[in-house]
Design goal:
Blueprint: E1 3-13, H1 16-26, E2 34-37, E3 42-49, E4 52-59, H2 65-73, E5 76-84, H3 87-96, E6 107-108, E7 114-118, E8 128-132
Parallel strand pairs: 1-4, 5-8
Antiparallel strand pairs: 1-5, 2-3, 3-4, 6-7, 7-8
Bound molecules: zinc ion.
């Protein structure tokens, strides 16, 4: 498997508008727009930082995964996403190595990227996302 870079850091927030006070207004990161992924009950906002991005995650429903995360852990770092060259190949390799996966096959995330999550129990507590997409 070839990991190319850290694609983005996912950060769970109560509200993207409020979070922008820090990430956009104070740090000066550009907000590239928001997108709602209905299957995941989440609205995401991508903010480019050099070769990577910050992804703010706001739940659209009280029973969504991000809402549940905030309920148990509070706002903060939610996941780290690695850009891979070939996500199907990466998942097959991880499976062969006995790594527990949340997504056995990739699904479509924000921006049309192919994404898949590894189980935090297999990674020492870090929710790891793999993603494959075009672009820099
Ligand atoms: Zn992500």
């Amino acid at each position: 498997m070839k990991i190319k870079k850290i694609d983005h850091l996912g950060i769970a927030v109560n509200g993207i508008d409020d979070a922008c006070t820090f990430w956009r207004d104070i740090l000066g990161l550009p907000l590239e727009g928001t997108e709602t992924v209905t299957t995941q009950k989440v609205t995401t906002a991508f903010m480019p930082v050099g070769e990577s991005e910050v992804e703010l995650l706001e739940s659209t429903a009280p029973d969504g995964p991000v809402a549940k995360f905030i309920e148990s852990k509070g706002q903060g770092v939610h996941h780290v996403a690695f850009r891979v060259e070939n996500i199907e190949e990466a998942l097959a390799e991880l499976k062969a190595k006995g790594v527990r996966l949340i997504d056995e096959t990739p699904r479509i995330g924000a921006g049309g990227a192919k994404i898949a999550f590894l189980h935090p129990k297999a990674t020492g507590g870090v929710l790891v996302e793999l993603c494959e997409r075009e672009g820099h």
